[in-house]
Design brief:
- The protein is mainly β.
- The protein is built from one helix and eight strands; from the N terminus they run E-E-E-H-E-E-E-E-E.
- The strands form two sheets. Strands 1-2-3-4 form a four-stranded antiparallel beta sheet, with no helix packed on it.
Length: 148
Amino acid sequence: MLLAGTGVAVHAEVIGSVDTAFILIGPDHKIVVEAYDDPKVAGVTCYVSRAKTGGIKGAIGLAVDKSEASIACRQVGPISFPKPLAQQEEVFNERLSILFKKLRIVRVVDAKRNALVYLTYSDRLIDGSPQNSVTAVPVDRATIIPLK
């Protein structure tokens, strides 16, 4: 997974998984839970759960994972901002198929409520999916979110 626009690799930490279907040859279909630390906001981690296709295609990386994903971002330490943030920015993306399909996570700053809103969705080269999930992390009013 890359930090959008920087070329810097951001790696998901797999927190856990559950099997959803037994596959005779290759890994089972499963739901995985991964943690992503926001690279531009210290103290915020996003947890994403998503389907991962098993079988032979899944084992060799040719499977197309489903578009459904769920996200929950939480404060896991003191929140700080090393640099000002863009009002809206893609912070993570990960391929869901060998070609054309990506899972994306976008951060939006809600300055009026002093909160960070995270949206996850998937897209394709031709058409994306309207399925999405959103979460918000409130920031203490004493800490102003710096904007570019």
